[in-house]
Amino acid sequence: MKILSIETSCDDTGIAILETKGGEKNLTFKVLAEGISSQIKIHAEYGGVFPALAKREHIKNLPILLNKVLKKGKLKSLEGINLIAVTYGPGLEPALWTGIVFAKELAKKCNVPLMPVNHMEGHILSVFGKNKGEFKIPKTNFPILSLLVSGGHTELVLAKDWMKYKVIGETLDDAAGEAFDKVARMLGLPYPGGPEISRLAELGRTLLLQQSPAFTLPRPMMYSKNFDFSFSGLKTAVLYLIRKIGTLDEEIKMKIALEFENAVVETLIHKTKKALTLHKAGTLIVAGGVSANKYLRKEIMKLKKDNPKLEILFPEKKLSTDNAIMIGIVSYLKYIKNNKKVPNPAKIKAVGNLSL
Ligand code: KG4
Ligand code: ZN
After folding, report:
1. CATH 3.30.420.40 fits 144-315, yes or no
2. Does the model's pTM come out above 0.70?
3. Helix, coil or strand: residue 145
4. The domain 2-131+322-347 belongs to what CATH superfamily?
């Protein structure tokens, strides 16, 4: 069957067409076409995502992107599409609604079922996706622990099976990606700040190899008994540090970026390691925009030292940030698991704070 999937939860408009085969034990996908229309340049001026602008841009981009994706997939029309999938949360509600309204119209026009998808489940399953060609969902060792780190979320999720999730820890304030973006802004770096901080920190790691850190930043909640996180205090500590230093030159910026990245990664690793041990997870999935971070990936891989059988999965770089391929994957899994039942489209609405 052919699935058309739509993602508009934040500042990326994504549409994909996937061809699917196989039953629950042998789910196979082929990307027929996909496209992303990024609003980064528009939001960069504000140093973050501006919901009303995101909504306007999604409305403008959705029909244009749909035509582009159909052309890429050499499809003349929506004929042959058997299922439409759309993100219904979590995310910015005005942005989510644009995708939902568009998807409802298409589903009605094509007379096909509409499957609502949780964006975070999309990030989890994104590790199996490919940007091009064919891929499968292989047999996976449960329980799976997922560390989801994005601009809006930081959570540890335990899955006993697909679609059976339990959030065992989450951020009490800012998300990891949000902290990267805010600290980048304090350092005068462009939005989104994650890749910029990462670039500076990597440079610092190479140049300052043997030196002890110029200053230390806190690792909030690192030793708390639960699996929750907090990044707001770390962000404030950077602010006070910058005020104390006064003028920032390139070297100081590099040192701050390095110590900040170390603090975030150390905290994430510490809690993930603890959760892996307690829940005897067979697989670790690390996904969401921040999972593109080079240092985080390197440190996560070190967890294999204590646990050589642990399977560690990251998404392809292109699928670590928001995309519609991951939404298509989840929709088919849900469709099969729910015996091809979908909810009444009239009942599908945007849920900004949807949890897993
Ligand atoms: O998953 P995503 O595309 O959107 C949300 O669902 O939020 O994540 C975007 C976030 C941004 O905060 C961005 O700064 C961060 O991911 N990010 C990174 C890196 N690449 C993107 N953070 C740290 N290091 C990176 N290399
Ligand atoms: Zn996301």
Report:
1. yes
2. yes
3. strand
4. ATPase, nucleotide binding domain (3.30.420.40)
